[in-house]
Design brief:
By secondary structure, the chain is an alpha/beta fold. The protein has helices at residues 12-21, 33-41, 61-69, 104-109, 111-116, 127-137, 148-154, 203-213, 246-258, and strands spanning 2-6, 26-30, 47-54, 58-59, 72-81, 85-88, 99-102, 120-123, 142-146, 157-160, 170-178, 190-196, 218-225, 233-240, 261-268. It starts with a strand and ends in a 13-residue tail after the last strand.
């Protein structure tokens, strides 16, 4: 089974993908999220796997938008604990580091570590890509913030572990397939959808009230701008219940009548939600 993801070997997305799909999956890395969705839609990959939400940084907007725009259907969710490490070239020392490369979100999550040591933060397109860059350049004083596995993949040395400011750092991923290939989940317990509303007072409230009327628990609600219509928004919802469940199905019928546009992004089993707490040792 070929599974597309954004990044290079050692990326957190690859680690989460391998954990979710198992050893039989063949990860296919692409530079950009759009290419991940392209690969699924044109059949080069059987499934896609992308991050959609981080417990600290919030939603991954580009992937949320693509799930709405493309003809795909989410079939599973998964969580991964994010533990950032500082990686340097072999023989390097922590006290010699002056510049650190990584994804902007990873740099922000490690701001306290960087500021305390007065290290210069340099944005890169992803964490594993930053590790690959440092390994290729092999310049004294340069390091990357990435996963511990990246040290093995790119022949780097772990200079410091668990360097993020907030220790309970988790990312949520969604697996998806082509819309036409989607089958009813064996145990659909959660549904993701998006909708837009008509322009009149109380339009959003009317739509949200439908979920309350059917005793449906919303676990997430956010708005995203509609690029083709400036200052208009789509509303993204995660709710408990499968799309074919009686209450959810009834609410969706009413929502389609009340809203301007509705798309069910996916319906899938509920993954165990991680909890943060004291770490051993």
């Amino acid at each position: 089974m070929k599974v597309a993801y954004q990044g290079v070997p050692g990326a957190y997305s690859e680690a989460a993908l391998r954990r979710h799909f198992g050893a039989d999956a063949e990860p296919l890395g692409f530079p950009f999220s759009e290419q991940v969705f392209d690969a699924v839609e044109d059949g080069r990959a059987d499934a896609g796997f992308v991050p959609v939400e981080n417990s600290i940084a919030g939603s991954v907007g580009v992937n949320t938008d693509l799930l709405l725009e493309r003809k795909v259907f989410a079939t599973a969710e998964a969580y991964l604990s994010i533990d950032h490490c500082l990686l340097g070239c072999p023989g390097g020392r922590l006290e010699d580091v002056t510049a650190v490369y990584s994804h902007p979100i990873a740099l922000a999550q490690c701001r306290d570590f960087l500021n305390k040591r007065k290290l210069r933060a340099i944005p890169e397109y992803d964490t594993a890509g930053a590790a690959e860059l440092v390994a290729q350049r092999r310049i004294a004083g340069e390091a990357a913030i990435a996963s511990k596995r990246c040290a093995e993949v790119y022949g780097l040395t772990v200079l410091a572990e668990d360097i993020q400011s907030v220790k309970g750092n988790f990312t949520r991923f969604l697996a998806f397939c082509r819309e036409n290939d989607a089958r009813a989940a064996r145990k659909a317990e959660k549904t993701s959808l998006a909708f837009s509303v008509h322009h009149h007072p109380g339009a959003l409230l009317e739509c949200l009230k439908l979920f309350a009327d059917h005793a449906i628990n919303l676990t997430k609600l956010e708005s995203r701008p509609i690029a083709s219509n400036p200052f208009e928004y789509s509303f993204f919802v995660d709710l408990l219940g499968g799309a074919d469940d009686g209450a959810v199905s009834a609410a969706l019928v009413e929502l389609r009548a009340a809203a301007r546009h509705v798309k069910v992004l996916g319906s899938y089993p509920l993954a165990e939600r991680p909890t943060s707490g004291p770490r051993p040792g």
